[in-house]
Specification:
- It is a single chain.
- By secondary structure, this protein is mainly alpha-helical.
- 78% of the residues lie in helices and 0% in strands.
- Helix 7 runs antiparallel to helix 8 and helix 8 runs antiparallel to helix 9.
- It is globular and about 45 Å long.
- The chain starts with a helix and ends with a helix.
Length: 267
């Protein structure tokens, strides 16, 4: 239980930190590409990757599309690390830097577990660390969004969060099939499904929507109809390959939509 003890120690240490005011902005003044909306997009993608890593770990551990899910697992770890460095180098806010130190502990522990043989104890720790990484990444998104004076970047946050929810849904779906059949697993899955559907309805009515964004949102609805019934009836199980493929298609489409919102804000 050394890993869990480290989480508790980090949480206690982090609670004692005094956060600097959210005033120090990133290097956006120095680079037109590293602007606030893009940083929110990157930080939001970290939320998704925290869940995608755990999801891929479970699918790989269960031997489902092993070659594909193993590659997805380690590619996602590498991408999380690259994005981590971008945020660390781009943002000078002390509160965000403190949170990055907190995330680093969890991401390094999870990466080490990913290289060990799959077993239920390790899988339980992977779930814990993925939640820690998600909470820390959400805090960074919230801080970056608070820096925005116009608040238009909130649409990037909302669309980006949909990417995370697709992976979170798949994570808890496959965790349930892998034997984590407690009440919390089912409730987390149902909550993520509900939040995804509510946010999708909000995005459909966004004033910033272009014809291209509307077309992508319509694609999401078609894909969602394929897999939503599996999520909502997780106790029955079955067809994990369809869940994996369709959920990843939804995530990829939401990634496109998020980038389209970033571009729309910059135009």
């Amino acid at each position: 239980m050394k890993n869990l003890n480290k989480i508790l120690i980090a949480l206690l240490s982090f609670a004692a930190l005094s956060f600097a005011p959210v005033a120090s902005i990133a290097k956006s003044a120095e680079s037109g590409t590293t602007n606030l909306a893009r940083l929110i997009d990157i930080a939001g993608k970290q939320r998704m990757l925290s869940q995608k890593i755990a999801k891929a770990y479970f699918f790989y551990g269960q031997g489902i599309r092993a070659d594909r899910t193993r590659k997805q697992l380690f590619d996602s770890i590498d991408e999380f690390n690259r994005n981590f460095q971008i945020i660390r180098k781009s943002v000078h806010n002390q509160g965000i830097q403190d949170m990055l130190a907190y995330i680093k502990m969890a991401k390094d522990e999870l990466a080490a577990l990913a290289r060990q043989p799959y077993n239920k104890e390790n899988a339980s720790l992977v779930l814990d660390y993925s939640e820690t990484m998600l909470e820390g990444s959400q805090d960074i998104v919230t801080r970056l969004e608070a820096m925005s004076k116009l608040k238009k970047e909130a649409i990037v946050n909302l669309a980006g969060r949909q990417r995370m929810l697709t992976q979170r849904i798949a994570k808890y779906y496959i965790a349930y099939q892998a034997g984590f059949r407690d009440h919390n697993t089912v409730e987390q899955l149902k909550t993520a499904v509900r939040e995804f559907e509510e946010a999708h309805a909000t995005l459909r009515n966004a004033k910033l929507n272009t014809p291209e964004i509307k077309a992508e949102l319509a694609k999401i609805e078609r894909l969602w109809k394929v897999v939503a019934k599996f999520y909502k009836d997780v106790e029955r199980g079955g067809l994990p390959v369809i869940v994996l493929a369709t959920t990843d298609d939804i995530m990829t489409t939401m990634n496109t939509i998020t980038h389209q919102y970033v571009e729309a804000l910059g135009s």
